[in-house]
């Protein structure tokens, strides 16, 4: 028996709002019968079609795709589901990246009243564009070196980022306070950052990284620099004084 339902009855039976049913009718996705008086009437066939729509929506298909599928009698379900699964896997990776970035952001700002936007953006960008950075690094370094750079436990990475943010903030303050790059405090900052990088990569790997010619670096492929031009120049000078001091101590 092919039951008939008013739009209100059909809405209650399916758990779909009247507004949604009106919209599906408007875009030609689920078109009811019309009585002589203009009332919308649904039947069991509409129930089956709506179930297909809801199933495809649950699988992540857009309403435009759903409409095409319903109109295409030769729809290849296997190929479509395979493609949709790949799309969902990519979306899941993207969501995992966003969650990771949020976790790292919360760790960085924990206990801090303020944080310089440039520092924050640099760290989050490093997570957001990790795959792009890896591709660029693979052009410059052997694969095992790149793997070594990224083979860091997440909790350790968060701690390193927090220390990094604090050190960069100190550099910015020293430049603002007109502290000379050869001041012991400046040299200590350079030393601490060098030791942090050595701990992170190991001295051998760090030396390989530092040996890369700046001309070989594609600026669009690397993360934003948290230091402005003046701060970067100041830090290079402080690092030069640190290296000079290290050579004297050997």
UniProtKB/TrEMBL annotation:
This is MerR family transcriptional regulator. InterPro entries: DNA-bd_dom_put_sf (IPR009061), MerR-type_HTH_dom (IPR000551), MerR_fam (IPR047057). Signal peptide: none annotated. GO terms for molecular function: DNA binding; DNA-binding transcription factor activity. SUPFAM superfamilies: Putative DNA-binding domain. It comes from Peribacillus faecalis. Keywords: DNA-binding. The keyword NAD does not apply. Residues 4-72 form the HTH merR-type domain. The keyword DNA-binding applies.
